[in-house]
Design brief:
heterotrimer, A mainly alpha, B alpha/beta, C alpha/beta, A: mainly alpha, B: 8-stranded mixed sheet, globular
Chain lengths: 296, 322, 330
């Protein structure tokens, strides 16, 4: 009969003041891997912002004297088939990759959240419509859908953003709908209804804040996915223009030289890998802190 | 004494909830509230008492129109609200506020107390921020807190203090009716009495009418003027407090009263211990709903449901064949 | 050996949270006589449940640890025996009933199997004999159709029935001491009456000792012989149930009894204890009740009073009675 898992309510919860931000920071420091991954992402942001000034060489200017050089003291990451410095291209490409993935996930999150809130709060035919639509979207493999969208809209970074955003929407809508359904049952929401609050007030003041933490978690995990998707589209020639220093495009350009100069492919590959990994680790860490219920 | 008018009139309300029971079985439903009628005079406290699942909370939510009744009518201050649309209802809701059982869950944890208490003002008035802050500070003092508490969050308070915050929020529009759903049952006894005293003081000060919902008969006796006893969604007995406690007519009321543990070791106890459990509301018994547990059951009870009739004494209604 | 089945002496228990030690029980001393029902009363956070867990040494998976004191059961200090010896005592000699029976019943095991498992384990009965014992226990706690219920799962039963099963399980090995932690708090009042009735009957029949933990003074008045009142992790008063209700000594006990509305007693206002219970990390320096006490004196803020004798088998921890004390202990 030793099944006592919880100590009754006798252990009083301390109620001393602690700001949420400080509480978060304390927990965040304990998430060792996510903490360092977070530093790495901060570093990436700095590079993305100041890339053009940091880059040792011009990432666009060909230099046919030094084509396909292996990494050296002069060119830390070697050069590509036009003699452009790969490190400089990676640095400038950081801005493109982060920009594309952030803006696409942001669009997906905003639209998905609005749809999720409507679907969860109002229920009925709107809920059925939105959920059936997302079921249809889920039925397509993510990348195939993106390819189809870009094929319709035409290649280019803006359309990549649209394509990746579109396939992010249903995931966000579903997540937020679930949170909305749970938050709708909260007593303080019922209290607001009993006071005579309008739906708009209930949704934005009471329900939306309840969904924010899991949205942040999902947002950070989704960045990784969308970097991969954007790079894949560029690799397939549907995204960034081939000469632009986009990581996916660099992979695409370099595949012809895979056998002779593998660094042309390996280095952008590592950049993509590390960035996606960092975002996923940060997402995991955020989830453990903000949304421990959804673990597993 | 002047006969005051009725603030709340409830006439034959019904509410049925559908329940999903698997894929293939037929749709079932629970009669949560079945033909309940009562009225509450201005300035009076009417309590609904009964055990879990008897429909007392659902009745409270019907009166505040958080739920819409399937049948029956509800008048509040002369206006029939049972089928009213949300826009018109908003006007009525200024007059009707609720206090909830769980002081932890009923306050939004992300809002400062100032915003929690001011929310009804934001919804119903166009006061300036300074005006609102002034009224909030005033209201916090009224319920025994201090104005500096406005800057804190709900989690920084104890259960009793949170319930005071909930009461401040309910009072801020100066409503006529407060529906209090088990407002003290989550609190410790020493805190419970603070809140009960506060509710009584506020009733006097603001001339409030209470619909008080509770499972605790001792609390109900302390605070009420009139009482309605519910069993399985029906009102089985109602009347002035003195009559219900001194001269209970329905066997269920008698058993309920005798079940309450008395905090006095010398008290004489003549306990009526009911057999068995409350039947499932999905499959309520035929006839009188109480006949499966009633010590005085007769043949007629099994077939015919008794109507609520006025007993020998005025204002005292009982639904029993005895 | 004394007539006491259990003596708790200077028990101190603490929890660790964020590397911060919090003492939740301090100098808790009381005894349970053979065959009596001792009530342990107090409000949430007073340490009454932690006391029962300390007695059973059920701090697995928590940061709780007993840092001082003795728990003497039938002459042996339970704090000095091994975990395997303790396991033999748990369930067989000392059993426990919890507030929420669903958390202590295994949801995927039939009622009968759960009952028989404990009986076989502790009494070494054969299957046949264990089944007979289980059925007879279910009959004793007033379960209709016991042999049918044996084949059912916990979720098929109502809250009241589950609590009866829990009692049957706790009583199945004829324990010497039963610890009941808020056994009826989750139940409706008519069901509570049934359960209290069953417990009273069984206690009298088996002449069993019982520690009844509750916040409900009504339940105390009906069930207990003696009462220990706890506040903020300390025992503040100990008295027979009659003395306690006739003439409570500690201002907290007075406030508590005055706070409870009583049917048939017409009072315009209830007495109430002002303020709130202090949190363990925010304890006042002297008497823990001083901030809420209406008889507070300067000394109360300075030094914590010791528990002293204030009458025949009566103890109280309050400066009002300190000079009467002769054998006061901390």
């Amino acid at each position: 009969m030793e099944v006592v898992k919880e100590i009754g309510h006798s252990a009083v919860v301390p109620t001393e003041k602690k700001s949420r931000a400080r509480e978060f920071w304390k927990k965040w420091k304990k998430q060792k891997t996510a903490f360092w991954a977070g530093f790495f992402i901060l570093f990436l942001f700095v590079i993305a912002l100041f890339g053009p000034w940091i880059a040792p060489y011009d990432p666009y200017e060909p230099n046919y004297d030094v084509t396909l050089q292996t990494p050296s003291m002069e060119y830390w990451a070697g050069t590509d088939e036009y003699g452009r410095d790969i490190l400089s291209r990676i640095i400038v490409g950081t801005g493109i990759s982060l920009g594309v993935s952030f803006s696409s996930v942001l669009v997906g999150a905003v639209v998905g959240t609005i749809l999720g809130l409507i679907s969860g709060y109002y229920g009925g035919w709107m809920d059925r419509l939105i959920m059936r639509w997302s079921d249809v979207m889920f039925a397509f493999p993510d990348l195939l859908l993106a390819i189809a969208i870009v094929a319709i809209l035409g290649p280019g970074l803006t359309n990549v953003v649209v394509a990746v955003a579109v396939f992010s929407i249903p995931s966000f809508a579903r997540l937020i709908r679930g949170n909305t359904l749970a938050a709708k049952e909260a007593v303080f929401v019922e209290a607001a209804r009993s006071m005579g609050a309008k739906s708009s007030r209930i949704i934005f003041r009471h329900i939306f804040p309840e969904t924010v933490s899991s949205m942040i978690v999902f947002f950070s995990m989704r960045i990784g996915t969308s970097i991969l998707a954007a790079s894949s589209l560029s690799f397939l020639g549907l995204g960034a223009a081939p000469e632009s220093p986009d990581w996916g495009a660099m992979l695409s350009m370099g595949r012809d030289y895979l056998a002779t100069s593998p660094h042309v492919v390996i280095i952008p590959g590592i950049a993509i890998f590390l960035t996606v990994l960092a975002f996923n680790l940060v997402g995991d860490g955020l989830r453990d802190i903000l949304d421990p219920k959804t673990k597993n | 004494m002047v006969m005051s008018k009725s603030l709340v009139v409830v006439d034959g309300i019904k509410k049925t909830f559908p329940i999903d029971s698997g894929l293939l079985s037929s749709k079932k439903s629970v009669k949560a509230v079945n033909h309940v009628s009562f009225d509450i005079k201005e300035g009076e406290t009417f309590s609904l008492v009964g055990e879990s699942g008897c429909g007392k909370s659902t009745t409270g939510r019907l009166v505040t129109r958080l739920l819409m009744p399937d049948e029956g009518k509800i008048w509040i201050n002369g206006e029939e609200i049972s089928k009213m649309n949300e826009t018109k209802l908003r006007e009525v809701r200024k007059q009707v506020q609720m206090v909830f059982q769980d002081p932890y869950a009923s306050l939004n944890p992300r809002m400062k107390i100032r915003d929690v208490v001011a929310e009804p003002l934001l919804i119903h008035t166009k006061l300036s921020a300074q005006e609102r802050d002034r009224i909030v500070a005033e209201m916090l003092e009224v319920v025994g807190l201090s104005s500096y508490h406005a800057e804190k969050f709900a989690h920084e308070f104890s259960g009793g203090q949170r319930q005071r915050i909930g009461i401040a929020r309910a009072l801020i529009l100066k409503p006529k009716l407060i529906v209090a759903d088990e407002p003290v049952s989550a609190l410790d006894v020493s805190i419970q009495s603070q809140i009960l005293n506060l509710l009584k003081d506020l009733q006097e000060e603001f001339h409030l009418t209470y619909l008080f919902i509770s499972h605790d008969l001792s609390v109900v006796e302390h605070i009420s003027d009139k009482i309605g006893v519910m069993y399985l969604g029906s009102l089985v007995e109602s009347g002035p407090k003195e009559m219900i406690f001194a001269n209970p007519r329905h066997p269920y009321t008698k058993a309920l009263l005798s079940s309450v543990p008395i905090p006095d070791p010398r008290a004489k106890r003549e306990r009526i211990i009911l057999q068995g459990d409350v039947p499932s509301p999905v499959n309520p018994p035929s006839g009188c709903l109480f006949h499966t547990r009633c010590p005085f059951v007769m043949d007629i009870c099994k077939s015919t449901p008794p109507a609520l009739r006025e007993a020998a004494d005025r204002d005292h209604f009982v639904a029993c064949h005895l | 050996m004394s007539e006491n089945i259990m003596e708790v002496k200077h028990l101190q228990t603490q929890f660790t949270r964020d590397n911060q030690k919090t003492v939740v029980l301090d100098h808790v001393s009381f005894h349970i006589k053979k065959g009596e029902v001792l009530g342990l009363v107090g409000e949430s956070g007073c340490g009454k449940s932690v006391t029962s867990l300390s007695i059973m040494r059920l701090f697995k998976d928590t940061t709780g640890e007993i840092t001082n004191g003795e728990i003497v059961y039938n002459g042996t200090n339970l704090l000095s025996i091994s975990e395997s010896d303790m396991r033999r005592i748990r369930g067989k000699e000392i059993s426990m009933i919890f507030q929420e029976p669903m958390t202590s019943l295994n949801p995927v095991m039939k009622i009968g199997e759960q009952l028989m498992e404990a009986i076989r384990l502790h009494l070494g009965y054969s299957d046949q004999k264990a089944r007979e014992q289980a059925v007879s226990m279910l009959t004793k706690v007033g379960i209709p159709r016991p042999s049918e219920i044996m084949g059912e799962y916990p979720h098929q039963l109502s809250g009241g029935m589950r609590q009866r099963i829990m009692i049957a399980m706790a009583m199945s090995c004829n324990p010497n001491l039963l610890i009941a932690d808020e056994p009826t708090t989750a139940l409706d009042v008519t069901i509570q009456a049934q359960i209290l009735d069953v417990m009273k009957q069984l206690q009298a029949d088996e002449h069993m000792s019982m520690l009844l933990i509750t916040h409900d003074l009504g339940v105390v008045a009906e069930m207990c012989n003696r009462v220990v009142v706890m506040y903020a992790g300390r025992v503040v008063e100990e008295a027979s149930v009659y003395d306690l209700f006739d003439e409570p000594k500690h201002p907290y006990t007075k406030g508590l009894i005055g706070s409870v509305p009583k049917i048939g007693q017409k009072r315009a206002r209830l007495d109430s204890v002002p303020g709130n219970v202090p949190t363990p990390n925010n304890m006042p320096k002297g008497c823990k009740f001083a901030p809420r006490c209406k008889d507070v004196m300067p000394v109360c803020w300075e030094k914590e009073p010791v528990i002293t004798t204030v009458g025949e088998e009566r103890f109280c921890r309050c400066w009002l009675y300190q000079e009467e004390g002769r054998d006061g202990h901390v």
